[in-house]
């Protein structure tokens, strides 16, 4: 049995690709550059997620998707802040176009079977843990698609005007706040994105495109409160506080 497990692990080793999207700007953070390249405890925000994905067993390829004007910043990250080679590509005007660019970049390796699973992560979520990435990868391989989520216990239904609804039937236990990385069977999600491109469909995230164009069940694993997205200046300050309080270091 142990030999069988080792054999299966060997076959899966390195066959997943990690994609990190850094297509945003620094406008809402109040910075003059893409927020992915702002510093967090001595390394760029993007480097944290890239290094975490790189450290997960089974992820053999790292694709870093950036705006064309940020290619030099990305090359600096690859040369100075990451220990694994990065495949740096320019993204599109939207998140979906950037995801499609990454999937097309991987298409030959997906078609050949060299890449069996793709994990897509936001560079603006720097504090994702090794354990969460591993859990998403495992679940995606088991079911075809997986996302991390936090139960949305703080949501209430709205009534008429500016009041909260009384006795609403909104079941908050059935709602989750979705995070990244989101993982999917590679060939299936590539086909889904190509179909979405033909139809002009634009989803909110990878899972929405999968739900629209595939029959695979998208499962969810328990996310992490520290895996928040840096959008505003206070989010970066919070991330710095979390790093300090927990004694975290970029992998």
Automatic annotation (TrEMBL):
<dbReference type="GO" id="GO:0008299">
    <property type="term" value="P:isoprenoid biosynthetic process"/>
</dbReference>
<keyword id="KW-0472">Membrane</keyword>
<dbReference type="InterPro" id="IPR034683">
    <property type="entry name" value="IspD/TarI"/>
</dbReference>
<keyword id="KW-0808">Transferase</keyword>
<keyword id="KW-1133">Transmembrane helix</keyword>
<keyword id="KW-0548">Nucleotidyltransferase</keyword>
<dbReference type="InterPro" id="IPR018294">
    <property type="entry name" value="ISPD_synthase_CS"/>
</dbReference>
<protein>
    <submittedName>
        <fullName>2-C-methyl-D-erythritol 4-phosphate cytidylyltransferase</fullName>
        <ecNumber>2.7.7.60</ecNumber>
    </submittedName>
</protein>
<feature type="transmembrane region" description="Helical">
    <location>
        <begin position="45"/>
        <end position="66"/>
    </location>
</feature>
<dbReference type="InterPro" id="IPR050088">
    <property type="entry name" value="IspD/TarI_cytidylyltransf_bact"/>
</dbReference>
<dbReference type="Pfam" id="PF01128">
    <property type="entry name" value="IspD"/>
</dbReference>
<keyword id="KW-0812">Transmembrane</keyword>
<dbReference type="InterPro" id="IPR029044">
    <property type="entry name" value="Nucleotide-diphossugar_trans"/>
</dbReference>
<dbReference type="GO" id="GO:0050518">
    <property type="term" value="F:2-C-methyl-D-erythritol 4-phosphate cytidylyltransferase activity"/>
</dbReference>
């Amino acid at each position: 049995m142990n030999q069988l497990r080792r054999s299966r692990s060997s076959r899966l080793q390195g066959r997943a690709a990690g994609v990190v999207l850094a297509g945003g700007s620094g406008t809402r953070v109040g910075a003059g550059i893409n927020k992915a390249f702002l510093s967090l405890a001595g390394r760029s925000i993007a480097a944290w997620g890239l290094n975490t994905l790189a450290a997960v067993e089974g992820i053999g390829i790292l694709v870093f998707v950036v705006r064309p004007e940020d290619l030099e910043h990305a090359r600096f990250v690859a040369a100075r802040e990451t220990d694994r080679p990065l495949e740096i590509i320019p993204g599109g005007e939207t998140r979906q176009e950037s995801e499609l660019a990454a999937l097309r970049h991987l298409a030959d390796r997906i078609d050949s079977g060299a890449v069996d699973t793709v994990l897509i992560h936001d560079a603006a979520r720097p504090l994702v843990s090794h354990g969460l990435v591993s859990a998403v990868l495992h679940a995606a391989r088991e079911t075809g698609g997986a996302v991390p989520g936090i139960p949305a216990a703080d949501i209430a239904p709205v009534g008429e005007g500016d009041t909260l609804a009384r006795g609403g039937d909104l079941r908050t236990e059935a709602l989750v706040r979705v995070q990244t990385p989101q993982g999917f069977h590679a060939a299936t999600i590539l086909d889904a994105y190509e179909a979405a491109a033909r139809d002009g469909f634009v989803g909110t995230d990878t899972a929405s495109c999968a739900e629209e164009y595939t029959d695979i069940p998208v499962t969810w694993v328990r996310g992490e409160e520290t895996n928040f997205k840096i959008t505003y200046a206070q989010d970066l300050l919070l991330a710095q506080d979390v790093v300090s309080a927990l004694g975290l270091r970029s992998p």
